[in-house]
Design brief:
Largest sheet: 8 strands, antiparallel
Strand order of the largest sheet: 1-2-3-10-6-7-8-5
Shape: elongated
Number of helices: 0
Helix content: under 10%
């Protein structure tokens, strides 16, 4: 808010912070907090079996969901749709039920903290 020549109450913006991908994955995995909104995005290389797979973890407790796991979108090689999620303990994962192992998840998850 503009208050007589100065901005007051600007929201915290961490900028995009790199998150180390889990073993078996390479690529970009990042988290950002702007005010109460937290975003997780990733473009990874690695295989994802049917079911849920951990692709990374948020270490900073100020970026983890507080009340319940957060869910978002995920696309895998070949256009297969899945889901992304961030747990209240900071685990970042993807899941799909396509019937076969897929690869290279791109994900986005957005939640309030």
């Amino acid at each position: 808010m503009w208050a007589g020549g100065a901005w007051v109450g600007q929201e915290l913006d961490t900028g995009w912070v790199d998150v180390e991908p889990a073993s078996g994955f390479t690529g970009t995995l990042q988290v950002r907090r702007v005010g109460l909104r937290v975003q997780v995005r990733g473009d990874l290389i690695g295989t994802v079996p049917v079911g849920a797979t951990t692709v990374g973890a948020i270490i900073d407790t100020n970026l983890m969901p507080t009340d319940m796991n957060a869910r978002g979108a995920c696309y895998l090689a070949g256009g297969t749709a899945g889901v992304s999620y961030v747990t209240t303990s900071g685990t970042i994962g993807v899941a799909h039920q396509s019937g076969t192992t897929k690869a290279n998840p791109s994900l986005m998850c957005d939640y309030l903290r």
